[in-house]
Amino acid sequence: MKDIVFCSNNCFVLYSAAVQAKTSENKESVPTLPQSPMKERPPKAFHQYSNNISTLDVHCLPQLQEKVSPPSSPPIMFPPAFEAAKVEAKPDELKVTVKLKPRLKAIHSSLEDCRPPSKKWKGMKWKKWSIQIVIPKGSFKPPCEEEIDEFLKKLGTTIKPDPVPKDYRKCCFCHEEGDGLTDGPARLLNLDLDLWVHLNCALWSTEVYETQAGALINVELALRRGLQMKCMFCHKMGATSGCHRLRCTNIYHFTCAIKAQCMFFKDKTMLCPMHKPKGTHEQELSYFAVFRRVYVQRDEVRQIASIVQRGERDHTFRVGSLIFHAVGQLLPQQMQAFHSSKALFPVGYEASRLYWSMRYANRRCRYLCSIEEKDGLPLFVIKVVEQGHEDLVLTDTTPK
């Protein structure tokens, strides 16, 4: 008997006649499955397996019944697109929350909208930025000088010295005491022994003119003329600023001319209210501050000689921050040792000066300078007087 080899689904099976005899004997003992309702086809070959001895027909396998799928859940009904809705479920059902972006409804109207559609930029959002500026009502009031001084005093950075006694020096022109405002009469200038004039009172006098070096000429001449002239505004003597209009006799003090609203010009002329032009003028001067070096031209030799001749005096002689208290004297036997090629060193000389402190950077103190005699030679003494500290005395044989 010959062996037969069948090939099915890439599997090779060896059949023999003996095997077929055995399978035919056992075929009766194995129960057969019911035939499938499919239409029978003419069998081409019967495949029998040697490992598990089966009579199953490969082409006639029974068909399994399809599983019935459970009924599908009803579809979720969404709310309208123009409003966000929440689907509330019962306790036994699934709870689903849906948020939808509202859409604009198309407006159906008889009139067609002629506006072009607005351009949309992807990924960008535009926001309107509004700026609101609140301006308080009323005008801003700048702080006065007293408030600024008080503020600097609190900070501790002020260089203002301690308050000094009231200044009783009077201007020979306007008769006002002390230094005036910077944009007004300005500071006092020394004219002669215990004679003082305000800078602008002297500068705006008709006879006075200023040199290139800053010296005021003819101040004494203007002062003598002012003793006989009466001011048109305050009716007091000492007026020296006259109207520049020809044959006009109106004359004022400098401070009274400002109060009377006279017009000042840059060429140092003035017009009274009767003759000044209406409105503003391009050459009009409205600011009177003088920050340059200005002094009164005088004969200092004659002035010092008058101080020495008076002996005991009741007047104060000051040059800048230096105040003279006593001139001193020299005896004939002292002349050889108490002088140099540039200066004299009289015994008894005494003067004081206000200068910066050696202890504090933002304070001033008083330095009392004097000349004494020791072993036939001059001795220079400086006494430092500062509030809150003991007096410090410095001495040397030379003024340096």
From TrEMBL:
Gene3D superfamilies the UniProt entry points to: 3.30.160.360, Zinc/RING finger domain, C3HC4 (zinc finger)
Entry EC no(s): 2.1.1.364
UniProt-recorded Gene Ontology molecular function terms: histone H3K4 monomethyltransferase activity; transcription coactivator activity; zinc ion binding
One BP term from GO: methylation
Membrane-spanning intervals of the chain: none
One Pfam entry name: FYRN
InterPro entries, A to Z: EPHD, FYrich_N, Znf_RING/FYVE/PHD
Keywords of this entry: Chromatin regulator, Metal-binding, Methyltransferase, Nucleus, Repeat, S-adenosyl-L-methionine, Transcription, Transcription regulation, Transferase, Zinc, Zinc-finger
Protein name stated in the entry: [histone H3]-lysine(4) N-methyltransferase
Species: Cinclus mexicanus (American dipper)
